[in-house]
Design brief:
The complex is a heterodimer of chains A (340) and B (349). Chain A is α/β, with parallel strands linked by helices and 340 residues long. Chain A has twelve helices and twelve strands. Chain B starts with a strand and ends in a 5-residue tail after the last helix. The chains are: A alpha/beta (340), B alpha/beta (349).
């Protein structure tokens, strides 16, 4: 059984302008100890998917349907009391901005201890020892002194390490990381990514990595979900996705990346911009921007279908032959020539 | 090729003061501390570095939005370092800037037509009818609908706003455009559109760019030459191909190897130099070589005593400020630390 199984998840927000379908029928699963990458542009629904799983959307204007089975228990139907037990204990979350996700008026030690005492029946002293152990595990130098420092005394990368320590405080089975390295410099990003993979081996947590950066996905994920306009466009194991991408949107994403390892004179550009989720296009949501659009795309919305390899799903009506040809053409232009 | 912009030993120090009534300067933040480079007409100089390395401060000094503490800036053969505001005005027509945040850099209470036309009005170019025609042409050039002349910035998406910013910069036919992180706030698909647009405009209008970014992929795509900055200093300047194929400074190497490559097969056997720690505080920078506390190739008694100069390394026009430049690339961290390991494990080909 998968650790987390999300089935046909829908999250709609009621707004003054109408109903925003922020997540509209998303399914995926996360295996124990594995990393799932969710990629997409801003507004594609990747963060809302995870907030819904965690039960963190505002109640009064959200309509949720579908299932999110965590160890067989449907989180969408759980009481808020039960969710509080699960959050921070079984499922933990790391946010994008380490500046605003720590409380500026408490020391990091106090905040870590608080997170431990909420879920464990131990003394304050034991909790502090545990907090110190974790700060050491995430690579904070002189942790015994830094534990009494305030968040503003840490740099961005160090703050993100503190956030990771806080997420790991109760050995969660699942760690949801929402763009954890987007606000960081590349060298710090490399440090944090390698720290996350090392801790994953050590603690055996599964990770959902939300990012807009295909480079980060290639680096850390085992499986990838590509989201576009609140729907899953393609889902595949990481090697498969980069070797045999089968959705025109994925091609666009891959082609629009300027790369360190290839010389491209002109980037592939996807024309236009992502659609409004108040009133998404009929049929395939990508069709107004797609270069391969056919009549059928404008009518009915494509469902996720099996590609030639097991575990590779894609939602596109294009015939297999064209896809193979186009994907190969794209990858050819990006053959690695520079040495990395 | 003629030199359009020459920057010599540019320094910008910000004072740190203490006291409310009687302010005493107790230290200074050396945001830019002796940077020299040239930009030739028609080329793109990419500037990369981590946050806090002084890239934006340098850009603002070139534009004379900040007064440099020391150094000399020569634009199109004329020394502009100490010109007054009035003297600068005609020169401002020749150099324009594109900003990072397309939300904050456009006045929300003005219509697009006004925003783009403002520079034309300031410099008293053309009649009202000509201005309107020019603005509509500009909107068309950057890929916006000329009929959107009367809309407000909030009616546009991030990518479209950045196009408005570009139209505004083009209005007075500048020679030099300084782009300060123009695509870092945009999604990848929109980023590609803007990068392609900037390239097209460059070949159409013979523009010269100073392109500042923290994303090495983007800089590689758009630049002819690249300057790597660290803590207010230029540590390496080279042509794009030289820098990305054979970086000489260990910091450039570490930056390159930290960039995630969108190819999962590469991650397994990639050689990496992982840097420890953070960028030091520019109020109290390390002695001599600014990079020595984090450098895997640190030699005690040399790197922390003698400041390295930007010296020619490798091919023509390739300079790096390091006493122990890298012999080859890629290298693992152990190889960088001990070059003899590097020699022993060097590939045969």
């Amino acid at each position: 059984m998968s650790l987390l199984e999300v089935r046909d998840l829908k999250t709609h927000f009621k707004t003054d302008d109408g109903i925003v379908r922020a997540v509209d029928g998303v399914s995926f699963s996360v295996e124990k100890g594995k990393t799932l990458g969710i990629v997409g542009e801003s507004g594609s629904g990747k963060s809302v998917t995870c907030l819904t799983i965690m039960g963190l959307n505002p109640k009064q204007n959200t309509i949720t349907s579908g299932e999110a089975l965590f160890n067989g228990e449907n989180l969408l139907a759980a009481s808020s009391r039960r969710l509080r037990e699960i959050r921070g204990n079984d499922i933990a979350m790391i946010f994008q901005d380490p500046m605003t996700s720590l409380n500026p008026v408490h020391t990091v030690g106090t905040q870590l201890v608080e997170a431990i005492l909420l879920h464990r029946d131990i003394t304050k002293k034991q909790a502090k020892a545990r907090a110190l152990e974790l700060l050491k595990a995430v690579g904070i130098p002189r942790a015994d002194r830094r534990i009494d420092d305030y968040p503003h005394q840490f740099s961005g990368g160090m703050r993100q390490r503190v956030m990771i320590a806080m997420a790991l405080v109760n050995d969660p089975d699942l760690l949801i990381a929402d763009e954890p390295t987007t606000a960081l410099d590349v060298t710090t990003q490399a440090q944090i990514l390698s720290l996350m993979s090392r801790l994953q081996e050590e603690f055996g947590s599964a990770i959902i990595m939300i990012t807009h950066d295909l480079g980060v996905v290639a680096e850390i994920a085992d499986e990838v979900v590509v989201m576009y306009a609140a729907r899953v466009a393609e889902k595949a194991p990481v090697d498969e996705l980069f070797k045999r991408p089968r959705h025109p949107y994925t091609w666009g994403l891959l082609g629009s990346l300027p790369r360190l390892d290839a010389n491209v004179e002109r980037l592939v550009q996807i024309p236009g911009s992502p659609p409004s989720l108040l009133n998404p296009p009929r049929g395939c949501r990508f069709h107004p921007r797609c270069a391969y659009v056919m009549e059928v795309c404008k009518g009915e919305e494509p469902q996720l279908m099996q590609a030639e390899v097991a575990g590779h799903l894609q939602a596109c009506y294009l015939d297999e032959e064209t896809k193979v040809r186009e994907a190969e053409k794209l990858l050819e232009t990006m053959t690695a020539e520079a040495r990395i | 090729m003629s030199e359009l912009l020459v920057v010599e030993d540019l320094k910008k120090h910000f004072p740190v003061t203490r006291g409310i009534i009687i302010q005493k300067q107790i230290a200074s933040v050396k945001a830019v501390d002796g940077v020299s480079f040239t930009v030739n007409a028609g080329e793109t100089l990419g500037v990369v570095g981590e946050s806090g390395c002084g890239k934006s401060t340098m850009a603002r000094c070139i534009m004379r939005l900040l007064d440099p503490t020391e150094g000399k800036i020569t634009f199109d053969g004329r020394d502009i370092t100490h010109l007054s505001r009035a003297q600068m005005r005609p020169i401002r027509r020749e150099m324009m800037m594109i900003f990072q945040d397309p939300y904050a850099s456009l006045n929300p209470r003005k219509r697009v037509g006004f925003i783009v036309a403002e520079a034309l009005e300031v410099h008293k170019i053309g009649t009202a009818a000509e201005t309107k025609k020019r603005v509509q042409d500009l909107l068309d050039i950057v890929g916006l609908n000329p009929e959107h002349y009367n809309r407000f910035p909030h009616e546009f998406s991030g990518g479209q706003r950045q196009r408005i910013g570009i139209a505004r910069a083009l209005a007075v036919n500048p020679k030099l455009i300084v782009c300060d992180e123009p695509v870092s706030a945009l999604d990848v698909s929109v980023q590609a559109q803007i990068l392609n647009l900037l390239k097209d405009l460059q070949s159409e209008f013979k523009l010269t760019y100073v392109f500042i970014a923290h994303d090495l992929n983007v800089v590689r795509h758009i630049s002819d030459r690249v300057m790597v900055m660290y803590l207010g200093h230029a540590v390496e300047i080279a042509s794009r191909d030289q820098l990305y194929a054979e970086p000489k400074h260990p910091y450039s190497g570490a930056l390159l190897s930290a960039v995630p490559i969108p190819d999962p097969t590469i991650r397994r056997d990639r050689k990496r130099v992982v840097l420890e720690g953070d960028v030091p505080n520019p109020i109290n920078p390390p002695s001599a070589c600014w990079f020595h506390p984090r450098c895997p190739r640190f030699h005690e008694g040399h790197c922390d005593v003698e400041t390295p100069e930007l010296l020619p390394r490798g091919g023509p026009g390739h300079v790096a400020a390091c006493h122990y430049p890298l012999e080859r690339w890629p290298m693992t961290e152990a190889e960088v630390r001990d070059p003899s390991v590097a020699a022993a494990s060097a590939p045969v080909d």
